[in-house]
Amino acid sequence: MTNEEKEELRRATLQAVAIRHPAALTVKQIARAVKREVPFLFEESDLTAALELLAGLSLVEFAVEELGVTKYWRATAAGVLKIEREG
Q1: What is the pTM of this model?
Q2: Helix, strand or coil for residue 62?
Q3: Given 3-state DSSP classes, what are the helix, strand and coil percentages for the chain, each rounded to the nearest 5?
Q4: Structural domain harbouring 18
Q5: Residue 45 belongs to a domain with what CATH number?
Q6: pLDDT tens digits for the chain (87 residues)?
Q7: Number of domains in the chain
């Protein structure tokens, strides 16, 4: 992936979770939404890396299923505000 594709993937990922705020989504659910937004192929690991970067910026957060290991991601208020401001 190029740096431009990584940036576009991050933006589309944030948009996908911000639109569904306050719903919490799995990586596979987010991937389905992001695939409609970006014109290139990406791996689940690319999406996970994008989510982790966005979490480091406090734009998304995750919760782990109590009885398992599945992470559910959602946009924070700051993430929703960023998407709304960018239009």
Answers
A1: 0.90
A2: strand
A3: 55, 15, 30
A4: 3-86
A5: 1.10.10.10
A6: 999 999 999 999 999 999 887 789 999 999 999 999 999 999 999 999 999 999 999 999 999 988 888 999 999 999 999 999 987
A7: 1
